[in-house]
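Subject: sequence -> structure tokens, single chain

Hey, anyone have a minute? Need the predicted structure for the following. Not urgent.
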Amino acid sequence: MTETPAAQRSLRVSGASPWEDEFGFARAVAAGDFVFVAGSTAWDDGMVQHEGDPYHQTLAAFGVAFKALARYGLSAQDVIRTRMYITHVRDSDEVGRAHKTLFDAIRPVATMVVVEGLIDSRMMVEVEVEAHRPGLATSLEGKQ
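Reply:
Had a minute. Here:
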């Protein structure tokens, strides 16, 4: 068996979600020059933030994702794809407005999908991000 070069192995980080351990997932995974961030919500300090406010829940959810990206030295500027899962179509304008607030100058590809519900009924939006930076894998070598 040959050893996989360090730059090609994935590097995982954890966040503050209680479901990470319960369900067995990482908050974010670096694979090569890409970082994939798991679904993030407005969950912070053991509770749902901004209950009933889709705009601020979206900002908070992206904040969770950005915190994970920062562990790799990345920021919103490195985001190339976003996905937004919302629990009601009536919230699409506010969620879209929050997305524009954060990404208007960056313009990642984006998807917004209406879903039946999220793991906590107070959550109105869940977001995922994918980021890319040429040379990231090399800069992460030895940090595994």
